[in-house]
Amino acid sequence: MTRVVLVNPPYSGLFIRTGRWLRETRAYQNWYPILLGYCCGLLMREGHECLLLDAEADRLDFYQTFKRIYKFKPDWIVVYWGYDSRVNDFMFADKLKCDGFKVVLASPWSYCLSHNQFKRETQISYMTYGEFDHTVLELVSENKSPSEILGLIWKDEKGEVHQNPRRPLCSPEELDRFPFVTKIYKKFLNLYNYRQTSLRYPYIDLYSSRGCPHYRCIYCVFPRSLQGKPSYRCRSIRNVMDELWYIHDFIPEVKQIYFQDDTLTEKRMRDIAQAILDEGLKICWGGECRPEISYETLKLAKESGLRTLQVGYEVPIDRHLKIIEKGTTVKQITEFAENVRKLKLWSSMSLMIFPWMTPDEIRFMIKWAKQMKPTRINLMMAIHYP
Hints:
With about 375 residues, this protein is an alpha/beta fold. The protein has 14 helices and 17 strands. Helix 10 (about 265-280) links the parallel strand 13 and strand 14 (about 285-290). The two termini are about 40 Å apart.
């Protein structure tokens, strides 16, 4: 049995590292460390002793975080890092290595980090890429050499960087075998440390699927970095419902459940909503979707307890929707927004400013967004990653 700490490092207490896009927050918002949570559950399933530590959400400083880690006496430490926060995160990880711990860097952001940066910017010898659950499991189990572990980037004794072949994605059957991530949260985390202004407090999140069936949007780093290719995999509806019942029965303080799926497809939303209604489960829930769900499915979902939708409209200009390969039209997204308003759903509208847009186009986008009357608007500037 190996002792493993999985840690979201400290930064400022106001930094969202575990979300889809990294940013400072002025409202103490944060997402759960969901990827670390699933990895932690897998390690525990296989007999390892784990500590999941979210130092950023707990607002711990470096000293307080190190103190908790040292007290646990781990054999391995998994550090979740972000591209924008990597100077801080690598310094944190390097200090742990200097103190004699074995450390692996894990997150989707290795997709953006060159081998030269990995060699130059950190002393750490191991970094995952793609879905990292089973890569971490094989590494900490210590029954293989680094060169044999799929999905691993590693340095040899001379400091040269090697990248092993990509690990196959988890199958739907394997996703069903993962322990419920909400059980992991309940065991290790303080649920009251997590807030999102669009969700009832306290909320909790989980995946019902991994990957994105659309996958073509040119700006979307997160699913692309985890997958490497289009691949949409779903947990069984029975398995998802069992977790929803677990939350209902054993974490009653939760006011809203949020599906962190890359996108809830129309079929997925309909299947989940119908199962909730069929089983008489009384919950409030939400999720992310594309602006192409039909009125009938949205209505069914609302009847089942859907309250919040976070929707990537991106830009209400057909020419730009084609450039970013969104696969939607202005007519389509306008109709969707009107349907959301008719059903009085809590709607968070995400819009993006792209480098080629003119000031007039940006003003038009703002005017259109106001006419759609969403509950909240997120306005983001597209920033280049390597």
